[in-house]
Amino acid sequence: MNEYVTPFFRPPSEHKSFILQATIGCSHNKCTYCAMYRKETQKFRVRPMGEIKEIIDAAERNGSLERRVFIADGNALVLSTAKLMEIMDYLHEKAPDIERITMYANVGDILRKSIEDLTRLRENGLTMVYIGFESGDNVVLERIEKGANFAETVEASRKLKASGIMNSVMVLLGIGGKDRSREHASATGKLLTECDPEYVGALSLQLRPGAPIYGQWQEGLFELPDKFQMIEELETLVENTELSDGYFYSNHISNYLPVRAKFPEEKNKVLEEIREVLKTRDEAFLRPDYYRDVVNQY
């Protein structure tokens, strides 16, 4: 049996999914805030198709091949359309009742695929991809070496819309530092409005050893906003975000203030809740700091 390289990562919403590690590591692996995929054993590589099929076969035999499948690691959409189609065909052969297939993706991988290729993948079961936008501020995006700017992210999102693949987006409160906190939050809301994803997850930046930004923080080159500045960012983000029919969450354990809302219906209600917290500055409304301390994955 081909062993999984650990640690491997998946979105919280995929906790019941079968994780198929078709690639190892992240093909970009330059984002300064990220401490994932930094081990030598996680250097990016693609598993041979024979190994991938052996993993699927073993899951079928032991009953762990679930109706939902998440194809890992960091951004599996980097694989060619032909290889992804072969993987998905084999999954359907071994588990005909699979309900959905998802994976991480990055903007560049989407832009390199045609709408026709993306549509083929959707028709073969790829229902949704998870993308880390992190910020809509081009200054911040360049600082964190994200590899994509505002306009490219909008273009990639429009290709997903055209192909029918849902988009679950992650943004990072605090990633602009104190110096670009407001610019980051405002531009990120505007980016979300332009892209109009089905799901938005706002996380709060945590400084972890192994991430380049951690060294910048130690050297005094990066200053993390405090807890109420993070919530001010959340307010600005929500103010500037218009979704036609989407869900906005900040319920990840990294966040001080959990929010769950359907947009546009509940946007004003959420803003009122956030503003009440900022008005009182009462930490009783916030998650304790130790919740953030125990989180060790993004």
Shape: globular
Query: Mind telling me the CATH superfamily name?
Result: Aldolase class I
Structural class: alpha/beta
End-to-end separation in angstroms reads 28 Å
- List how many beta strands DSSP finds: 10
Order of helices and strands: EEEHEHEHHEHHEHEHHEEHH
CATH class: Alpha Beta
Number of helices: 11
Mind telling me the C-alpha Rg? 19 Å
Helical content band: 25-40%
State mean pLDDT (0 to 100 scale): 94
* Biggest beta sheet attributes: 8 strands, mixed
CATH-assigned fold name: TIM Barrel
Question: Within the largest sheet, what's the order of strands?
Answer: 1-4-5-6-7-8-9-10
Furnish the topology, listing elements before pairings.
Layout: E1 18-21, E2 23-24, E3 45-46, H1 49-62, E4 68-72, H2 81-94, E5 100-105, H3 107-111, H4 115-123, E6 126-134, H5 138-143, H6 150-163, E7 166-173, H7 181-195, E8 199-204, H8 212-218, H9 227-240, E9 246-249, E10 260-263, H10 267-280, H11 289-294
Parallel strand pairs: 1-4, 4-5, 5-6, 6-7, 7-8, 8-9
Antiparallel strand pairs: 2-3, 9-10
Helix pairs in contact: 1-2, 2-4, 4-6, 7-9, 9-10
Question: Tags for this entry?
Answer:
17% strand, TIM Barrel, alpha/beta, 298 residues
Provide a quick synopsis of the model.
With 298 residues, this protein is α/β, with parallel strands linked by helices. The chain contains 11 helices and 10 strands.
Outline the structure in words:
The protein is of the alpha/beta class. The chain has one domain (12-287): Alpha-Beta Barrel (TIM Barrel), CATH 3.20.20. The protein is built from eleven helices and ten strands. It has helices at 49-62, 81-94, 107-111, 115-123, 138-143, 150-163, 181-195, 212-218, 227-240, 267-280, 289-294; strands at 18-21, 23-24, 45-46, 68-72, 100-105, 126-134, 166-173, 199-204, 246-249, 260-263. The strands form two sheets. It has an eight-stranded mixed sheet. Strand 7 (166-173), helix 7 (181-195) and strand 8 (199-204) form a beta-alpha-beta unit. It is globular and about 55 Å long. The two termini are 28 Å apart. 40% of the residues are buried.
